Amino acid sequence: MAGKSRPLRADAVRNRDKLVAAGAAVFGERGLDAPLEEVARRAGVSIGTLYNHFPARENLFDAIFPARLAALDEIVERSLADPDPWSGFVAYVEGLFALQAEDRGLNDALARRFPLAPELNTACHRGFEHLVEIMARAKEAGGLRPDFEPQDVVTLMWAMSQVIRESADVAPDAWRRCLGFFLDGLRAEAARPLPVPALTAEQVARFME
Question: Cβ–Cβ contacts within 10 Å for residue 68, how many?
Answer without folding.
Answer: 19
